[in-house]
Every structure is written in structure tokens, then in C-alpha cells.
Amino acid sequence: MDTSPETRYSTTTPRLSTVSPPRSYWHFFLEYLDNSVILEHYNYTGKLKNRCEGLKPENIVFLMVCVLIVLENAIVLIAIWRNKKFHLPMYYLLGNLTLSDLLAGIAYMANIVMSGPNSLKLTPLLWFIREGGVFITLAASVISLLAIAIERHVTMVTMRPYHGAKRGRMLILIGASWALSGFLGVLPIMGWNCMHRLEQCSTVLPLYSKSYILFCVSVFTAVLLAIVVLYIRVFRIVRNSTQRQRLTFTGSVRKGLARKSQKYIALLKTVTIVLGVFIACWMPLFILLLLDFAYPTGGSRVLYKVDYFLGVAIVNSLLNPIIYTLTSKDMRRAILRLLCRPCLMTSDGQVKKLGMPFLECSFSKTEVPSQKLEGGLETTISSGMLSPQHLQ
Question: Which residue ranges does UniProt annotate as crossing the membrane (predicted)?
């Protein structure tokens, strides 16, 4: 008789009742090591079919994208580490975002390798670790974007220079982003799952509860709205400051303010790119997860195409370094020197004429000389990064 997992579970009804008897903590722990739980949940949600296939072409493409994510973010981290100019509190959040994106690429690669037929070999404990690793790193990347928005907003509101207190604020934001990501990621393994409650199971993630899926979507939607609100406030601060100065000064100064007015418009374009990329990458996955909550388990075929939606979301980790670092002239110089120093630099450390166009080009066209703001401060506008400093 055929005793393969698909034969044993393809025609049977779930053996667990929806109301389970009281269980001891030891019994609860043993169920996390029971491989049959995986088979049962995958069969109930309809994801047991075609599990014997190896890597699909789209999975190979996603693996290649993950390799690019890891390499790209590793280069940025090395450039930050080797260049003392970047050993400042203002670059801590950028480094944290880069690290979370790098780890997201590694976690998703591991997820792909352990999927397909390998999913049926996992215990619930390993399954929760596999999915939780991807969730925590992606959540850290998203929340890091919020941390950057918070820092930019606080900097523009307080108009304070970079001093020792800012280092502590940066570390608090970094620690809070990872603490929140870790908390959200471990909730299923701590008990917020659908084991023994099959009718509450997610189709996309067969061991996750639909209520947990809805909770996570709500949290990430709140993060997105917070980012939008903060960047709108940053833009309004720059615009209002420019308008007040335009009314105060005359003559040649007003011409300078007219140029500055163009710069905050460029800032708006950069912020639009940041938010547009974030929404374009994550919104399809959010919509899919909302459908997963709304439909009964296995109620829609599109729910079985989650790999494509998650692949689009992971692309955000590929684009983040381009948006947040490569638009900075200093970062471009550091990265290009790291990748091809002999091609761009002479023996005495000067930039070759051939390499100058690559170093001076600007993706967002917002990298401009410092402009004075109120209170004897100045603001450097680069990729939406606003950072007031004392004039020397």
C-alpha cells in the first residue's frame, strides 16, 4: 500500500477536532516536533498538491534577486564601515536599514531552499522558524523606514545640530525597530497560531491564524500611514521656512531663495519616489493577505500564488540601498572607490576625469550646496535627507 504523505492525507478529513482537550505544556511542546501536523495543515489548506516538485523557474529567479540583495547591501555596509566620514549617528539608521535588507535576502533564500518538498519534512517548530525569520527581517526593513522618517522629522522640528544626545536617540530607534519586529515575528511560535483550529488557518501560511495575519497587515498599514504623514510634515516645514525667508529678504538673496524653492520641490519628488516604491512593492502582498483573511481557507486560487507577491515585496530590499544611499554623492564616491578604485582614482588619490561624471551624477538631482535656514542653521538636502547643522 502506498504510504506517501500525499496518499495518506489527500482523501482524509482532519483528524483533529476544532475543540481540543486540555493539554500539558509537555504535550504542547511535543506537538511542535510532530511532522504530521505540517502534513495535516497543508492538506487542509490545499497546499499539499505539487509539493514533490523541485525548484521552479520563478524560485530560481527569486534566488538570483536575493543574491543581488545580499551583495548590494553588503557593499554598502562595507563602504560605511571603511569610511570614517560615515561613522556618525546620522548614518546609524541607514546602516541598520542596510543590515535588515541584507538579512532579509539571506532569510528569503533559506525560505526558498526549504520550501517545496522540503516543507513536508519540517516540524512545526522549524516551520515557524523558517517563516518567522523572513517575517522578522522584512518587518525590520519596513520599520527601519519608519525610524528614518521619525529621525528626519525630529531633526527638522527641533532644528538642533548633531550632538552627543543624537547617538542615544539613534540607538533607541534601532533597538525599538528590532524589538518590535522580533515581537511580531515570535507571536505565532508563542501560541498565536491555528494548530488544532484548522478552520481558522491562513491559506497563504497554513500554520498561521487568520487573525494574526490581519493584525500584521494592520500594523504595517499603520507604519505606512505614519511614514506618509511624517514626510508630508517634513516637506511642509521646508516649504514654510522658504516662504518666510522669501518675504524677509530681497534682491540677490531672493534669487537664492527662488533656487531653494526649486530644491524643496525636488525634495518632494524624492519623497514621492521613496513612498511610491514602498507602496508598489508591499501593497500587492497586503491585498493578498487581506483576501486570505476574507476568504474561507482555500477559497481562492490566487492565494496559492503567494511566492510572486512575496517576491515583489522582497524587491523593496533591493531598491532601498539605491534610494537611500546611492543618491548621496559621498556614498557614491565611497562605493565606486571600493568597487573599482584603480579605474577611478590616480596613484596620488585624485579622481580621474573619466570617473568624474559617475561620481558627480545625481539620481534625484537634489544634492545641492547647503542653504541657510532660520536660527543660523543650515540644511543639506540630499535624497530627502534633511540635516540642520551649525554654521562654521
Answer: 60-81, 93-113, 125-150, 171-192, 212-234, 264-288, 308-327
